[in-house]
Hints:
Elements: E1 4-9, H1 18-26, E2 35-39, H2 42-50, E3 55-59
Antiparallel strand pairs: 1-2, 1-3
Amino acid sequence: MADKIRITQVKSIIGRPAKHRRIIRSLGLRKMNYSVEHTSDPVILGQVKKVSHLVKVEEV
């Protein structure tokens, strides 16, 4: 079974590049302090790495 991670948006996307906004939306994040759970696969981890300054990641 794949590991799960919880991703929480901790900083605003206001004033960020459009690419960062698209990544945040594709992860399923909608607003500040909103959390989603995803499987820990390379695609998701790559997206998280691009916006690591905007999110907090925890293992579930």
